[in-house]
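Q: I have 112 residues here and want to know how they pack in 3D. Can you give me a structure?
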Amino acid sequence: MHVPPETPCAQSARTVGGVALSHGDMNDIVNPGIRKEYQMRVLYINNSGGGWADYIQVPDGQTVERFFAERMPAGKPEDFLIRVNRQPVSRDTVLQENDRVTITPVKVEGAA
């Protein structure tokens, strides 16, 4: 499914809980004019805000650092706990097919 950026549906589909979507068919909405060949699927669990989980397509050979930069463009990695398959990982870790990637803020706004 491709939704052109100018349609009302595309406008509401750009963010969920304030986090930009950029997976599968949504890539054209978030990154117009940028085409990528997606070759593997990972489970992305976003625990920021309301939180959500979804299987998404990512380029083969994508690192955790690049994954974070694309999914959380306004975020700083040091403000989040980033895990792959429930284990803390380094930024240069290369994602594999069916990995489970979890991004959780280390401090929740408004919490004491």
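Q: Anything worth noting?
A: The mean pLDDT is 76. The two ends are 43 Å apart (CA to CA).
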